[in-house]
Amino acid sequence: MSSHTTSAPASPPGAWHRAANIVLWILQAVTALAILGAGASTVIGAAQPMAVFDAIGAGDWFRYLTGTLEIAGAIGLLIPPLVGLAALALAVLWLVAIGTHLFLIGGNPAAAVAFFILSAGISWGRRDSIRKLVPVR
User: Fold this and answer.
1) What angle do CA 104, 67, 115 make, to 5 degrees?
2) Phi, psi (5° rounding) for residue 12?
3) What is the pLDDT of residue 3?
4) Distance (Å, whole) CA 107 – CA 16
């Protein structure tokens, strides 16, 4: 008598890629909504962002610039050819925000850290879209 072990059929090669793509799109949409809210509150001058930018002391122009970059990045997370580059730009923006909290104004950088992790993860997951926009020599 021979013993046979049966196992479930392997997933088709493209199944994992499709699942990862769906997860990334969900992550991008949720992150885009959260960053869009953060950017809008920065531009309209909500109390918390106003306190942060007052502590920086760079003036309203810097608050408007930062909020506009957040909004543009959030929109970029939803545009397939731009998503990787938008996520990379947002990761840099959030890294600067973390540094600003740690070395300049104090306060809790937790939101910036969370946005950095999300943006960096999306950027890594969409690195092929960056390569299409910025060819490496």
Assistant:
1) 70
2) -60, 150
3) 52
4) 41
User: Which run of H or of E encompasses 100?
Assistant: helix 83-100
Q: Which of 61, 50, 32 is nearest to 105 (CA)?
A: 50
In whole angstroms, what is the distance from residue 121 CA to residue 47 CA? 29
Number of residues that this document lists for the chain: 137
Between CA 98 and CA 117 the distance in angstroms is 11
Instruction: Give the predicted TM-score (pTM) of the model.
Output: 0.86
* Better-scored residue on pLDDT, 86 or 59: 86
> Residue 46 class from Cβ within 10 Å (0-12 exposed, 13-18 middle, 19+ buried)?
middle
Domains in the chain: boundaries: 16-133
